[in-house]
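Supplementary Text 2. Reproducibility record for the structural model of the 284-residue chain.

All settings were left at their defaults, and a single model was retained for analysis rather than an ensemble. We include the record here because the model underlies the residue-level annotations in Supplementary Table 4.
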Amino acid sequence: MKITIITGMSGAGKSIAVKAFEDMDYYCMDNLPPSLLADFAKLFRDSSKYIDHIAVVADIRGGVFFKDLFKSLESLIKDGFEYEILFLDAADEVLIKRFKEHRRPHPADPTARIVDAIEKERQMLNEIKQKSDYIIDTTSLTNAMLKEEINEIFVLGHVQKNITISIISFGFKAGIPIDCDLVFDVRFLPNPHYIEEMRDLNGNDEVVQQYVMKFEQSGIFLNKLVDMLMFLIPHYQKEGKTQLVIGIGCTGGKHRSVTIANILANIIDKANYRTIITHRDVNR
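Retained model, structure tokens:
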């Protein structure tokens, strides 16, 4: 029996994920208290009706019961069950927008500002995120794209399972992110900040990306960086590393670093590695 545990940030698309698993003929249960997870699995194993795949959503809506998740996972192992964890994430600004559109209180703290509740939830979920087998960032995904991504992972098996590549763009003015394994400085590239019509834009804007990448040194650097990472990542995997954090820095963290990080993330994602991208300073 295959058990998939769906968890992650509120508003990141878990309800869409459940529908995707249902379409793949999984038996699905939403918002199951983690303390009941092992009993739930036993129920199906002992049933006369054969159930091959189960997907269970366990998240902070379980309140105090969510703290029982790790104990329940240990129980699954002791009882001979195998499981995988799918974690859904999205950028803070996207989560805020989604909550405002649906006008729902945040389950982490219904009385707090949404931004504060999201930060609280991130802290609550940090450990389970680190232990997840698959992480999908839904920031730029439509519902259809998310379903396709899940199908790619759980049906077609096109995604590397045991390492997550986290790419962070940042500005050196605010300091280097403390969790980076590798840091690359792109301050040698021409700076769009000094082009008046681009100053208030960032590396997520096509005009900025075109400007940064039109220079020969940009393409050469990116090719050499990709070549090195494609060499390094499999070796990190062999050494048992489950997450590789790559920092891409420029002066302010808005133009050059964001551009290079976006392109790099797209290339690594197409190489079938789980990829998370964060733009730490893009809104500073």
